[in-house]
UniProtKB/TrEMBL annotation:
Protein name: Arsenate reductase family protein
Highest taxon in the source lineage: Bacteria
SUPFAM superfamilies documented for this protein: Thioredoxin-like
UniProt entry keywords in alphabetical sequence: Oxidoreductase
Protein family per UniProt: Belongs to the ArsC family.
Length: 119
């Protein structure tokens, strides 16, 4: 299991604490220091069952500079969104937990983290 975190994020810290409390083994990835590329983002989106706009932090300064809120949310624009996430990893929603069973979850709530722990 791997968890993508920003250490400054309280939701990330809560998710890590829960993993620790449950005694789970996992790898921490500080995705701002080690950002995922476009192919990795596509794979994680497939595992999440989401589209790139679903995991985009649209209130970030970079999102506003890029104007992502005005971008179409359709198949023809998908690559543009993925390129934006790869180029500006701060836009990626966090934490993302990739489970050993091939699934993934955005672990912003205790319920979401517990869901991945139950697999």
């Amino acid at each position: 299991m791997e968890i993508w975190i920003n250490p400054a994020c309280s939701k990330c810290r809560s998710a890590v604490n829960l993993l620790d409390e449950e005694g789970r083994e996992y790898t921490v990835r500080r995705y701002l220091d080690d950002p995922p590329g476009e192919e990795e983002l596509r794979a994680v989106l497939d595992r999440l069952g989401l589209e790139p706009w679903d995991i985009t932090r649209t209130q970030e300064a970079a999102a506003k500079e890029l104007g992502v809120t005005d971008w179409p949310r359709d198949a023809t624009s998908r690559d543009r969104w993925i390129a934006a996430l790869a180029g500006h990893p701060k836009l990626i929603q966090r934490p993302i937990i990739t489970a050993d069973d091939g699934t993934a979850v955005v672990g912003r709530s205790e319920e979401a983290v517990r869901d991945v722990l139950s697999r």
